[in-house]
Design goal:
Distance between the termini: 80 Å
Structural class: alpha/beta
Radius of gyration: 28 Å
Mean pLDDT: 79
Strand order of the largest sheet: 4-5-6-7
Helix content: 25-40%
Shape: elongated
Length: about 350
């Protein structure tokens, strides 16, 4: 009975009605799905009228926080949009900060409050609440290092001074003198490789927390004899890797420099043995190796870019296919050219 009723209904449908129904089906099938689709241009237009999702996610600043390995590591955290950069950095390096990724944590007590701050000619003065003192004395050096290195990663901040409830502070819980302010000259993850510290030079080396693509950089300040060549020592230290430490180097330990590092017009050229290759075709070098070299050598004031050749050959690429004989600077290596959010990223 139902089949007959359907047949009779279809007989009564005119050709015009069929045409109209076809048009409606086309609209439903092809056009309706686009009603809920937002183009990239439309997203950008919406973002220009307020705070976009892209702004919340992509704008970050650098902080130095404690990695589970026991070393301070460099990482990026999202900017707290409702705060100033100084306030955002401070809250990011507190214990339990939700903006920190796994395996790292801040050292500032969670109850500590940044009352206010001033920045004048590179001098940042932080006025802290008394609850800032609620940390273990054994953690003071790492805590202050984390705070100073994170704050001096912001533009125009060169030295950090401290107040406690509005009063100048000369020292907190430990013996460290903070009365004259602290700079990056205090070092980070300090190591000593010198017999006479009084005649030592300070070098900054960069290692990794592990060998994955998401590994964090571990900056190490090492005191070495002032009689060694700083460039050769830095490169050989990266190749040799850490001794008795929980951070790593991604170099093939058999790699050697065939010539002394050559510096010309700010460009450091390094000629390695073929052991630096990691692929069977011997054309590729790990981008993490290049990152270690660039981050370490550009810590020297006279070095702005690094170029790598292997046994004199210039046909060398990283694992992303980028030529590495072309001089590479720190901003390019970190994929962070220019200023973002009002400050230089990757510092």
């Amino acid at each position: 009975m139902m089949k007959l009723e359907k047949l009779e209904w279809m007989k009564r449908v005119t050709a015009k009605q069929v045409a109209v129904m076809c048009v409606i089906m086309v609209v439903i099938y092809f056009i309706a799905p686009l009603a809920g689709h937002v183009t990239l241009d439309e997203v950008n237009q919406v973002g220009s009228m307020g705070t976009s999702y892209e702004e919340d996610v992509l704008e970050t600043h650098v902080v130095y926080v404690m990695h589970e390995s026991g070393y301070l590591a460099k990482t990026d955290v999202p900017i707290a949009q409702e705060k100033s950069l100084v306030e955002s950095v401070f809250s990011s390096i507190q214990r339990g900060s939700p903006r920190l990724q796994h395996h790292v944590d801040g050292l500032i007590p969670p109850g500590a409050v940044l009352r206010d701050y001033t920045l004048d000619h590179g001098r940042l003065t932080l006025n802290l609440s008394e609850s800032f003192l609620y940390y273990r004395a054994s953690e003071e050096e790492d805590l202050l290092t984390s705070l100073v290195w994170s704050m001096t990663a912001l533009p125009d901040v060169e030295r950090v001074y401290f107040q406690l409830e509005g009063e100048k502070v000369n020292n907190f819980n430990g013996a460290m003198d903070v009365g004259r302010g602290l700079t990056r000259a205090m070092g980070i993850n300090l190591e000593v490789d010198a017999i006479n510290v009084a005649n030592a030079q300070m070098l900054k080396l960069y290692f990794f927390t592990d060998d994955t693509e998401d590994a964090l950089l571990v900056p190490v300040t090492r005191l070495v004899s002032d009689t060694v060549d700083p460039f050769e020592y830095a490169v050989s230290s990266l190749v040799r890797g850490p001794i008795g430490a929980t951070y790593i180097s991604v170099f093939n330990h058999r790699a050697t420099l065939l010539d002394a590092p050559q510096l010309e017009n700010g460009i450091m050229t390094l000629n390695f043995s073929s052991d630096l290759f990691f692929d069977q075709g011997q054309t590729q070098v790990s981008s993490q190796v290049i990152k270690q070299l660039v981050m370490t050598l550009t810590e020297f004031d006279e070095v702005s870019e690094v170029s790598v050749v292997i046994e004199g050959s210039s046909r060398i690429f990283d694992d992303a296919g980028n030529p590495i004989t072309v001089p590479v600077g720190r901003n390019v290596m970190l994929g962070q050219e220019g200023r973002v959010g009002g400050f230089v990223r990757g510092y």
